[in-house]
Amino acid sequence: MLLARSFLTPIVALCVYFWTPLDEHNWVLSAGLGVTATVIVIPYAFWKVGRIRGAVHPLGEALAVLSLLVSLVIVGFAGSYYSIALRSDGFPAIHTRLDALYFTVVTLGTVGYGDIAPVTQSARALVTFQILVNLSLIATLIRVLGRVAAESRNLRMRA
Questions:
Q1: 35-77 pLDDT, tens per residue?
Q2: Which residue from 143, 90, 110 is spatially nearest to 100, judged by alpha carbons?
Q3: At what angle do helices 58-87 and 2-19 cross, to 10 degrees?
Q4: Given a cut of 90, is residue 101 above it in pLDDT?
Q5: Whose CB has fewer CB within 10 Å in the chain, the N or C terminal residue?
Q6: Mean pLDDT (the chain, rounded)
Q7: DSSP code of 150?
Q8: What global pTM score does this model have?
Q9: Dihedral (CA of 103, 118, 142, 45) sign
Q10: Closest CA to 86 of 30, 35, 127, 128
């Protein structure tokens, strides 16, 4: 069940992202989706640490949590980038939701093909924030959740 949840979470997140009515009239919804998804990540991760410790399969639970956290970060930033592209010239090469999603994943992967680039200060600030989130939060969460899961598994094996 945990493995299925880990694979289904990104699919559900992408469905919400693509099916939510994000257009020029609903740009606030797009920005709100981005901010909400990104802000939820930190408290959710720490709340889930206790559940991982008590889980029957702590590594599976940690994988499910990481799947959700990464999905929220990707959908959150993609929504924010799309909102900026709708309301300003901050991302002149982002025309569709897929463009925004693509740019988010390329930034998350630190690949940076150069085909989409932020041109306004607010767009650059948001990309800088995403890079900081990528480097610090995601790496820290992987380490913390992995450690908790491994410790829980070791405790169960000793008992």
A1: 777 777 778 777 877 777 777 777 787 788 888 888 888 988 8
A2: 90
A3: 10
A4: yes
A5: C
A6: 82
A7: H
A8: 0.79
A9: negative
A10: 30
